[in-house]
Design goal:
The N terminus is likely disordered. The longest helix has 13 residues. 19% of the residues lie in helices and 30% in strands. The protein is an alpha+beta fold. 38% of the residues are buried. It folds into two domains: 86 residues, Pseudouridine synthase (2-Layer Sandwich); 140 residues, Pseudouridine synthase (2-Layer Sandwich), CATH 3.30.2350.10. Strands 1, 2, 3, 4, 5, 6, 7, 8, 11 and 12 form a ten-stranded mixed beta sheet that branches. A two-stranded antiparallel ribbon has the order 9-10.
Length: 266
């Protein structure tokens, strides 16, 4: 490449023919005429993209529900917000376009309250604190985000955390994101020196074993094989009644098993 060279990039459009309803079970936490609340499992992509066309939550929603909003497009039926593939927990779905816009407005105005649970390496220095940074796309790995200086394409990211439980070499953390940036919680916990365990993208380890608990990570049985992050609670104003509603998803089995093992060692 030389100075003033022009580079053209051709972006592939989503292939509508690859997106079909699929009979995939969904755990429904709540349902009424306006919204559906799902407990998303680990390993499920929310909507098609980046080469993933099947096994998505969008395909499952399209199979199980006759009417969902289409504001975000055919490939994202009802989807107002998202969770990473291996993050579990509460996700809300809108059943028509008007409801979608009302709920989206709450997310945009930051009146939605979100609470996550994460198992992290080490114990934060402070019992609770705000993490305030700017984040941007990683300068070498486009799938990652990173903390960066204000300006340019960086976006402000704010997270409040509390230590939920000390577990020897690890801890259970309650996380309250005040903004909704991509990978925000994963980046913020790494930033303060307490990365989420088994987060392949950010720490290079895709599992936590019993050996990690005793200081010998090369041995032991696998406890969890994905980032230990769970969307535990979501509070919104109901888009029709206006009443405050809170939805909770219990900790998934792999996180419960991991915590039980840590308590035994600790």
């Amino acid at each position: 490449l030389r100075v003033n060279d022009r580079i053209g990039v051709e972006l592939a459009e989503a292939d509508d023919n690859r997106f079909e309803p699929e009979d995939i079970p969904l755990e429904i936490l709540y349902e009424d005429e306006a919204i559906v609340v799902i407990n998303k499992p680990a390993g499920m992509v929310v909507h098609p993209g980046r080469g993933t066309y099947s096994g998505t939550m969008a395909a499952a929603l399209q199979f199980h529900f006759d009417q969902l909003s289409d504001v975000a497009g055919r490939h994202r039926p009802g989807i107002v917000h998202r969770l990473d593939r291996d993050t579990t927990g509460v996700i809300l779905v809108a059943r028509d376009n008007q409801i979608h816009q009302r709920v989206s407005s709450q997310f945009e105005q930051r009146t939605v309250r979100k609470e996550y649970r994460a198992i992290v390496r080490g114990i934060p220095d402070l019992e609770s604190d705000y993490i305030r940074t700017h984040v941007c796309v990683h300068n070498r790995v486009r799938e990652k985000m990173m903390v960066c200086a204000p300006g340019g394409r960086s976006r402000e990211a704010v997270t409040f955390y509390q230590i939920g439980e000390r577990l020897g070499r690890f801890s259970l953390i309650n996380l309250h994101p005040h903004t909704g940036r991509t990978h925000q919680l994963r980046v913020h916990m790494q930033h303060i020196g307490n990365p989420i365990v088994a987060d392949r993208l950010y720490i290079g380890e895709d599992r936590l074993t019993t050996g990690h608990l005793s200081g010998n990570p090369l041995k032991g049985e696998t406890l969890i094989a994905r980032q230990a992050l769970h969307a535990f609670r979501l509070t919104i104003s109901h888009p029709v009644s206006g009443n405050e509603m809170t939805f909770e998803a219990p900790l998934p089995e792999d996180m419960q098993t991991t915590l039980a093992a840590m308590r035994t060692v600790g």
